[in-house]
Amino acid sequence: MKKRIFSGAQPTGELHIGNYLGALKNWVALQHDYESFFCIVNLHAVTLPQDPKVLKKKTLDLARIYLAAGIDPEVSTVFIQSDVSEHAELAWVLNCVSRMGELERMTQFKDKGRGNAERASVGLFTYPVLMASDILLYQTDLVPVGQDQKQHLELTRDLAERFNRDFGDTFRIPDPYIPPVGAAIMSLKEPDKKMSKSDENLNGSIFLLDDPDTVTRKIRKAVTDSGTEITFDESRPAITNLLTIYHLLTGKTADECESHFEGKGYGVFKSELAEVTVEYLRPFQQKVKEFEDGDLERILSGGAEKARSVASETLKSVYSRMGIR
Ligand code: ATP
Ligand code: LTN
Fold first, then answer.
1. 148 and 25 share one domain
2. 217: Cβ below 6 Å to ligand 1?
3. Lowest-pLDDT range, 169-178, 266-275, 289-298?
4. Whose CA is nearest to atom 12 of ligand 2?
5. Do both 49 and 137 map to the same domain?
6. Which of 58, 63, 170, 174 could cysteine-pair with 140, CB 3.0–4.6 Å?
7. From the CB of 40, is ligand 1 less than 6 Å away?
8. Do 163 and 234 belong together in one domain?
9. Is 112 noted as a catalytic residue in this protein?
10. Is 164's pLDDT higher than 80?
11. Which of 39, 112, 141 to mutate to test the pocket of ligand 2 (most atoms within 8 A of CB)?
């Protein structure tokens, strides 16, 4: 029996190259070795205010992006979170297993709630519990995510262990899969902050659907460090970040990247990086346009059916162990 992976992304904003290199690219690579579930987490999206029409469109757009990036629906299960009501049901149960104190320690709540708990939604507070439910419903072995999700994975493991201890062995304990390189792609404008969809400064992120001129302009205007060397060096985060993107998109080794740019200036480096990025995104952007709404609906409803058959088994055993029915 193959081991299982589960992961997801929110249908909010535009997916950027950080989401791709930190998560999506690894999903594509891992899908053949694992039984894979890839979810569009629209219930997570409404933890912050969303325009209903936009959310609906973005949900299908994200499915297109998964497929264009190389998720094969014949191999992997692709579905929308809200189509499988077990996610919300298990989240309720796990809310009753979670402690206020442990959720208060989640850094994402502090970041996304902008430190104003009084105004943030209760959904945003309990967001990590819904995420734990996503993962635990599928008896997941491995969760491929970026660095920013590590704390949520630790919570997921704690909740599963607590439940198993209190009610009997029910959930498999999942491990995070955080790639050794690319788990935290930084903003092109503020290299001490991660590249983020919700960043107001659009120039800090390369979006997967940015046109060639926009990609080139953003890279040309990316901040650099003092000095001239193009090497991986923690004390020079801006160049290291750009070189990391180059490294991952070209597949060249780190040493090859450094020697390739030895003696060359930032100008040459940036124009090569821009070219590599534009060429990498070109076939992907072409593919995104190819999926018809009808095909998508068929894939998503098949995915939901498959997901439900697994999720309902887990929820049934959770309820029965708790004496719920
Ligand atoms: P953002 O953080 O960009 O506002 P988000 O919190 O809405 O996005 P998702 O779109 O749900 O996040 O994230 C999808 C995946 O992308 C997650 O596994 C996340 O860890 C990963 N990810 C997000 N930003 C980065 C980044 N800058 N570098 C690497 N991986 C990232
Ligand atoms: N919180 C994640 C998205 C997410 C997720 C999940 C990732 C929701 N449920 C389950 C992995 C597994 C984020 O990236 N913002």
1. yes
2. no
3. 289-298
4. 7
5. yes
6. 174
7. no
8. no
9. yes
10. yes
11. 39
Residue 197 appears among annotated catalytic residues: yes
Does 195 reside within a domain? no
Active site includes 194? Answer: yes
What pLDDT sits at residue 124?
95
Cα 144 to ligand 2 centroid, rounded to whole Å: 9
Catalytic residue among 197, 252, 287, 306: 197
At 299 the pLDDT is 98
Structural domain boundaries, residue 256: 202-288
Give the separation between CA 54 and CA 17, rounded to whole angstroms: 21
Specify whether the CB–CB gap between 95 and 312 falls below 8 A.
no
Indicate the number of domains in the chain. 2
Shared domain check, 146 and 14: yes
3-state class percentages of the chain: helix first, strand second, coil last, to nearest 5:
55, 10, 35
Q: Is the CB of 179 under 6 A from ligand 1?
A: no
Do 75 and 169 share a structural domain?
yes
DSSP assignment of 140-166 equals -SEEE--GGGHHHHHHHHHHHHHHHHH
What is the rounded average pLDDT of the residues 119-128?
Answer: 94
Distance set, CA 233 to CA 244, 254, 290 (Å):
11, 11, 41
Mean pLDDT of the chain: 96
